[in-house]
Design goal:
heterodimer, A: elongated, B: 5 strands
Chain lengths: 90, 330
């Protein structure tokens, strides 16, 4: 995969993570992924493809992690609220 | 000279000193980040920790490149972020893990089960699927391989004509075919006249030795003569017969038979020889039934070479007879 391909994947994954509310549930991963992606673009602009690719790959990994974490939190919230509804009133 | 060297040496020393200072500063920021991490900053100050870590990494990249100015700029961002992370996480408590008595198994309550959703059913849960609505492969993170709508084996992402099949050599587009004879222009010896594939896209006989073009009759072989003489060798008769047939089929067409030579020998002799050879061709054609008024023989000698006369191959190409269309007869 090319640097641009990795960056596109990372960007897409980051967008999905944001959609899953990762800014709230996985702020560390989301922030890191965003910063890495920005720097990767900058390095690519200076034709430093090796480092750009490494950062973009890292950004992709972090964005996926953010996505997963946010989804887990949301599932947990949903389970809690479902469980809450299921408890019979005394 | 000495002064220039001294200045250069000073600059180098200053640059080295700046790099060393930046590295020391980076180590200091790294220690701060480590301290913040130990205080569980990832939970209590995630943004600050991320900013500090990222900028520290960027600073080290820049230092490796030898750009201490940019490294300093990243450290200027990393240092306060690390301080903030440490400060915010000072009272941060790590979640303690306590083993409690196992709760009784919950009675299954009717309601929606919370499972990993996989909207497109490709076996990759939506949280990991970059294309959650389109089935795809795990190698492409749940996205499909690029489609190929025209089925030409060139995927749509690189196919310049995704709706029309074409070879990959032409980026998935069909080769142009101006005359629509299904012989692509690149293989068509007559790209503006329909013809059969057997005849290389040209009209007429299937095994022709000539191509009739608008401005000339192109010979696929050279007419061969005896050396230094104007006697046509028998190997060229078949081709000249075809020329004769073509001219008889178009009596309104006038043709100039041009004789050419290389530049070896005297110019006058060459002009004379080329004229004689052109006349010999004219005679041959007239003998085959072509109207003599259609033909004009001209000897140009070495005046119009088509290749270099300095090589044997070039000289061979220059010794030739050509047929050029003239203005139609009135």
């Amino acid at each position: 995969m090319t640097v641009t391909g990795v960056m596109d994947d990372a960007e897409l994954s980051l967008r999905r993570a944001r959609g899953a509310d990762s800014d709230r549930y996985a702020q560390y991963e989301t922030t890191l992924a965003e910063l890495y992606l920005t720097k990767a673009r900058e390095l690519q602009g200076h034709a430093q493809y090796g480092e750009a690719r490494a950062l973009a790959s890292e950004a992709l990994r972090l964005a996926n992690a953010a996505n997963r974490r946010a989804a887990e939190h949301r599932s947990g919230d949903a389970a809690t609220s479902t469980a809450g509804l299921a408890v019979p009133k005394e | 000279m000495t002064r220039a060297l001294t200045v250069s040496a000073c600059c180098l020393l200053l640059a080295c000193a700046a790099g060393t200072a930046a590295r020391q500063r980076a180590d200091s920021v790294a220690a701060q980040i480590q301290a913040a991490r130990e205080q569980n900053a990832e939970a209590c100050a995630p943004r600050e920790l991320a900013v500090a870590e990222a900028n520290l990494r960027f600073a080290r990249i820049e230092l490796d490149k030898g750009d201490s100015r940019r490294a300093e700029a990243h450290l200027d961002t990393a240092a306060p972020a690390a301080r903030d992370a440490a400060a915010k996480s000072k009272d941060c408590v790590r979640p303690s893990v306590a083993v409690q008595q196992r709760a009784p198994a919950p009675v299954a309550a009717p309601g929606p089960a919370v499972t990993a959703v996989d909207s497109d059913g490709d076996g990759i849960p939506d949280v990991d699927d970059l294309c959650p609505d389109v089935p795809g492969t795990p190698e492409r993170k749940g996205c499909p391989l690029f489609s190929d709508r025209d089925g030409d084996g060139v995927t749509d992402d690189i196919d310049r004509c995704p709706e029309v099949a074409g070879p990959k050599e032409n980026f998935g587009c069909p080769w142009p075919d101006r005359d629509g004879d299904r012989v692509a222009d690149k293989d068509d010896r007559c790209p503006d006249e329909p013809g059969s594939p057997e005849n290389h896209g040209c009209p007429g006989k299937t095994t022709s030795l000539i191509i009739v073009r608008r401005d000339r009759i192109e010979l696929l072989q050279q007419i061969r003569f005896q050396p230094n003489r104007a006697k046509i060798l028998s190997g060229s008769n078949e081709m000249l017969r075809e020329v004769a047939e073509a001219l008889k089929a178009a009596p309104a067409v006038a043709v100039r038979i041009e004789g050419h030579t290389d530049n070896v020998g005297k110019r006058k002799e060459n002009v004379k020889l080329s004229q004689a050879r052109a006349e010999a061709v004219k005679e041959f054609l007239v003998g085959r039934g072509v109207d003599a008024t259609q033909l004009r023989a001209v000897g140009y000698g070495p005046k119009q070479p088509i290749a270099s006369n300095s090589t044997k191959a070039g000289r061979k190409l220059n010794r030739r007879v050509e047929f050029r269309m003239e203005e139609p007869k009135q």
